[in-house]
Amino acid sequence: KVTINAIKGLQAMQFESKAVFGNEMGLFIEPIRYEGQLVSFDVSIYVLIEAVIIDVNDIPYRWKSVKIKTVEYNKEKYHLIISDDDVESMNRRNGYRLYLGIPGVAQLGANRAAVDVIIKDISESGIGIVCEKDVEIVGKEIVHVNFRESKSGSNFNLNAVAVRKMTLPDERIIYGCKLLGESDKLRKFIMQRQREKIQRNKANNYKN
Questions:
Q1: CA quadruple 40, 45, 48, 52: dihedral, nearest 10
Q2: What does DSSP say about strands 48-54 and 2-8: parallel, antiparallel, or unpaired?
Q3: Are 21 and 28 a contacting pair, CB within 8 Å?
Q4: SS3 state at 92
Q5: Which of 31, 63, 74, 141 has its CA 20 to 30 A from that of 106?
């Protein structure tokens, strides 16, 4: 299974597909369609696209930044995933990342004004947020993150420390943060969303 996350500004979308085969060109996946139309990923550099691949042994891997092209190979249409970066493995127990792509608010350090962010993804141990501008975080300053998940109606107030920073071509910043402490509420929320996703996948496989 292949999950594609695309982020531009404060907008985010997620798509799912299946790997077909790979070669020196990249990874060929089943073409992704939206409302019957083939999705074009030939977009500007201001869009961050990452791919998460789960192999036959149910082990997840992630490419942090990829390009996706629509190609024809042996008279069949595919989407081709290309990346200059090495794929990285993800820890299954703590590393299941629930993609959200929803608005939130973050205070990046003490005595800082809160700013609007996108909650990119979350796990039991970490959270990814997208900021419009760079904020210099000194040392291990606490990052306060607040967001509401509309489907469940749950509000989350989390504390974390930034451990990674990535600058996008349009100068927006993605902060990877390690959550402080454990949250039973967050754990149950992630587990519920994970169960829902498994059920949807089973239903889709049954239809196919």
A1: 60
A2: antiparallel
A3: yes
A4: helix
A5: 63
- pTM recorded for the entire structure: 0.58
Give the contacts of 83 (CB within 8 A, at least 6 positions apart).
Answer: 26, 51, 63, 65, 66, 67
CB-based burial, 67-80: b 16+ in 10 Å, e otherwise: ebeeeeeeeeebbb
**Which residues on neighbouring strands pair with residue 132, listed in sequence order?**
none
**Residue appearing with tokens 């696209």:** 49
From the list 124, 123, 135, the residue with the least C-alpha distance to 174 is 135
Residue with tokens 């089943």: 30
Contact between 78 and 31 under an 8 Å Cβ cutoff? The reply is: yes
The pLDDT tens digits of the residues spanning 69-113 come to: 889 988 899 998 887 765 555 544 445 778 888 999 999 887 788
Residue 118, class by beta-carbon neighbours within 10 Å (0-12 exposed, 13-18 middle, 19+ buried)?
buried
Residues 24 and 52: beta-carbon distance below 8 Å? no
Helix, coil or strand: residue 165: strand
The backbone torsions φ and ψ at residue 75, rounded to the nearest 5 degrees and listed phi first, read 65, 15
Q: Which two tokens stand for residue 190?
A: 């992630």
